Predict the 3D structure of the following.
Amino acid sequence: SSSSSSNPLSCTTTSIHHRSYHSLSRRRGPIVARSPAAQRRDFVMTLMVKYWLTPWLRKQRNRVDTRRLNDIGAEMLCAEWATQFACVRPAEHDRTDGREQDARQRSLVIVHGKVRFHGIPYVYQRDDFLPRPMAFVHCRPLVVEMVDCSYMDVTDEGVRHVIFLSRLRELRLSHCEFITNKSMAHLAMASRTLLRLSISGCKRLTSECI
C-alpha cells in the first residue's frame, strides 16, 4: 500500500500490462484451413513460375539484341548484359578459424555480375553507372577485359556476348548450371585474347568440350 501510495502511476501501469498480456494471449478464433481450390491455385501458380515464367525471363536476359549491338557496340552490350545479373547465395564460411558455420547461422549475400574495362581500375557491377563511350572518345575506346558471371543463370545464348569482344582477358563462369558444351564452341572464337577461363562447378559441361 505504501508503494502504491508513493507512486500513483504504479497501479495504472500494472493494470495496463495486465490487460495487454491477456489481450495478446487470447485466441482470435480457430485457424481456418485453406480450401482445396485455393491450394490447387497456388500449386498451378508455382508450376507456371517455375516452368514458364522463369525460363522465359532467363531467355530474355541472355538474348543478343542485334539492334542494341548496332547502336552501342559489342563492348557496351556485353557490359550491360553482364551487370544485369544478380543472385542470392549463402556466404562463404569464416576463413579466420577455418570452421564451417551452421546452416541456420549462415548469412545470405547478393552476388552481382561484374565487368572491368581496359585502363580503368574499377569493377562495374549492378546499380553502377557504366562509363559513357563519348567520355573516352578522345582518349581511348572502351574495351572489356574481364567478365565475371559466376553463379548467374547464364545460358549458351548469353555466352555469345563475349565472342564480339576484341580484348577479353579473363572470363569467370563458375557454377553456371545452364552452360553446356555449346558455350565452349562460342568461346573458341574469343580464345585468341583469352588468358584465364573459370568454369568450375558447371555440371552440364563434359570432358568433350575440353
Summary: The helical segments are 2-6, 9-25, 36-62, 66-72, 74-83, 156-159, 181-187. The CA atoms of residues 106 and 177 lie 23 Å apart. The beta strands are 86-90, 108-112, 114-117, 123-124, 144-148, 170-172, 196-198.
